[in-house]
Design brief:
By secondary structure, this protein is α/β, with parallel strands linked by helices. The chain is built from 19 helices and 14 strands. The longest helix has 17 residues.
Length: about 450
């Protein structure tokens, strides 16, 4: 499947100041596949060092000298490794922390060789207390599940994606096109963006088969617990993994996850699942300026799950998504909020760590909460996920007034419009949000 991140990889290859690259992302989002496909197209050959499959290759990294490392790899693997012609791919690199540290010296002493490292549980190696990160000598890039726009491309609807990219605020979206996009969105909410599930859907068009693969992915995540937590922590990880999809859209209280467990145990489990890339915290921010992350209250947070398909599967919502037209309202809007959070991550700069934020005012008789807050062109904008034309958008308008925002953004099933300081976008146009916000700014 064609992934947008390939554009970034080809640009990276052509840079004269190219750094070794570490591709980060949760298990099964397609990291290895992406790198191997990119390598075949962009280089003469790809040499894959998989430390999980061939643990003996760790011995090549007992030294940090790249010349020695390359010579050992040539001998053990019997493959040519040539500057400018070969992509050296260090897969499951978290199994060999020395390989991560050696990347610094590839930049300093062997910079004509292209090197990419990837690993599903790399975050645990990077956050280890005894690990020395080669700061300034390695570049990070992040991969998420397929976005809805990538899903359009993969499903043969690239023309629809291009059409959305050309729509302006004064454009009128044809009703039939709108309905087709909403139908495709419904499928995406069921299937999600995990490559194995998407591939199964395109091959069989069978939602039950997709559900079985989603279930097996959950089992994969459970089987990973032993790799990053001691056995006593497993029961808390199980509880959090079970409850997290059901908490989307709500502020998290440790007691809601398990009233019989200590807060510190639940908090640790949340932190571990965040490192594994399975959950993402959405922190409350004062939103009084930039950066939004400098004004967070870490005690107030919500959750976004790795993938909307996995989320709805865990909550047993497939049949509701299949049968109802008003899918924004399903599970009190949690599926739609999960979708927007996931889309915001997907369309972020792939070289920057992703952060999601919301805004809340907890005052007696004057409480308010906005689903998301984003920065566009050095300005702060509130985002709400709402169904239909109903609803007062009280919190959104309160934020606009209090923070002196030019306008707010509402995602819904309605067509594109700008009225009374509210930019309404259909859910399927999340990729176009920043472009249309900038257009609205200049009106």
């Amino acid at each position: 499947m064609k992934r947008d991140i390939k554009r970034d990889l080809f640009s990276w290859k052509e840079r004269t100041d190219r750094l070794p690259l570490l591709l980060r992302g949760a298990r099964q989002v397609g990291k290895s596949y992406i790198v191997e496909e990119f390598g075949k197209k962009a280089f003469k050959n790809v040499v894959i060092v998989n430390f999980e499959f061939r643990p003996e290759l760790k011995q090549c990294f007992t030294t940090l000298d790249p010349v020695e490392i390359i010579n050992k790899l040539r001998l053990l693997m019997g493959e040519a490794i040539e500057s400018e012609k070969t992509l050296l791919f260090l897969d499951e690199i978290q199994e060999c922390p020395n390989a991560i540290m050696a990347l610094r010296y590839f930049k300093e002493k062997y910079n004509r060789l292209a090197v990419i490292g990837a690993g599903s549980l790399m975050e645990f190696a990077l956050n280890s207390s005894n690990f020395r990160m080669p700061v300034g000598r390695v570049q990070f890039i992040y991969l998420e599940p397929l976005s809805f726009s990538e899903f359009l491309t993969a499903s043969g609807n690239e023309q629809l994606r291009r059409y959305l990219g050309e729509i302006g605020l004064n454009s009128v979206v044809d009703g039939a096109v709108h309905q087709k996009l909403m139908g495709l969105l419904r499928i995406y909410l069921i299937v999600g963006g995990m490559p194995a599930v998407v591939n199964e859907y395109f091959e069989s068009r069978n939602f039950l088969n997709c559900q079985r693969i989603q279930n097996s992915l959950f089992q994969t995540y459970r089987s990973d617990f032993g790799k990053y937590a001691n056995s006593s922590a497993h029961k808390y990880l199980q509880k959090v993994l079970y409850e997290a999809p059901r908490l989307i859209g709500n502020r998290v209280k440790y007691s809601n996850i398990d009233p019989d467990s200590k807060s510190r145990d639940i908090k640790q489990a949340l932190n571990l699942l965040e490192l594994a890339g399975i959950i993402y915290p959405v922190y409350a921010t004062a939103a009084s300026g930039l950066p939004l992350g400098a004004q967070v209250n870490e005690k107030k947070f919500k959750l976004n799950f790795l993938d909307v398909g996995l989320m709805q599967n865990a909550c047993g919502l497939q049949s509701k998504l299949t049968l109802t037209n008003d899918f924004v309202q399903i599970n009190s809007g949690a599926v739609a909020e999960q979708f927007i959070g996931q889309e915001l991550r997907a369309y972020s700069d792939s070289y920057l760590e992703r952060g999601l934020f919301f805004w809340a005012r907890d005052e007696k008789n004057s409480s308010a909460e906005v689903d998301f807050v984003v920065a566009v062109d050095f300005r702060v904008f509130p985002l709400e996920v709402k169904a239909g034309k109903t609803g007062t958008l009280k919190s959104l308008k309160l934020f606009i007034k209090e923070k002196k925002s030019l306008f707010g953004v509402r995602f819904s099933q309605e067509k594109l419009s700008l009225y009374d300081k509210v930019l309404t976008l259909p859910l399927y146009m999340t990729e176009q949000m920043k472009r249309l916000v900038l257009e609205a700014e200049n009106l």
